[in-house]
Amino acid sequence: MQKTVIKEKLLGMTQAELIEAAKKCSLKAFVGKQLSDWIYKKRVHDWDQMVNVSKAARQALSEMYDLGVEAPVGKALSSDGTKKYLFSVTCPRGVADASGEIRYETSAVEAVMIPDEDRKTLCVSSQAGCKMGCKFCMTGRQGFHGNLSAADILNQFISIDESEGLTNTVFMGMGEPLDNYETVAKVIDILTADWGFGWSPKRITVSSIGVLPTLERYLKEQKCHLAISLHNPFPQERLEMMPVQKAYSITEIVRLIKQYDFSGQRRVSFEYTMFAGHNDTARHADALLKLLRGLECRVNLIRFHKIPDFPFESSSARNMEVFRDRLNENGLICTIRSSRGEDILAACGMLAGQHQQQ
Description:
This protein is an alpha/beta fold.
């Protein structure tokens, strides 16, 4: 742990907050609007790129604030074109001590850029590590090291090589997005605001294990897509691999989701990692059909990517196809998701703040 004082970052502020930041530096409100344009529209990396902001204003701002854009500390390129970026982040740990200072911990997080024809999707992290402890996930093995700030999350969008060409994002990287909901919601606001990135909510998907209190808020407050990590329709079997099942039952999660309308532009999907002999039988397929009956949704089957000290193996390609066909034949849309970036430890469940420099 290190004890330090960190400047507030402009990246991650809303336009209203940027206006207030300008005022704190004795600058006019319009400077705050200029900042939002430079940071979110033009995605500058340096104060000197803000050519219509006076040198004196830039000096005043830089003395009080950091811009907040920081280059990745590493990157790796997969044979399939997937690219993984490694970032160093500094997260607060607990509350201020007796002296009023907050302790911080430096951690590593990763983001993955996935190209697919005319799409470039960024898989972003929302936490350093994760509290959920899923036994088949490398991130969960790390434990929890802190929530990322809005600046930390948005930096994953702005500082990568493909920043200008990104078409979509999925909050499926390290951490549980709905365990850091206030910050994720703020990032979504910035991504979708006219003064921000100007993205449609249809370009954004948030994945969750099913944290019920904030899941309900997300369903009420957001228009983005939702993906739920399901992995087993039987509560007791799910609990054996996903400890969070004890607090947030998949039955209750689905019951809540069924109260909302997904017949329009917002979609809900269920992520289902396939383990040979453990969740890939006809019994499991039929239980899935029963659990999700009446809900307009999709199931995405995911090949399990082998990790150390976990004994399960992935289902065979043939078993995955049989499972998929059984669901489709009974009216539940199901697809097998392509595995990307496995050779650089960038595939589902493999993110652990590690990389192979290339």
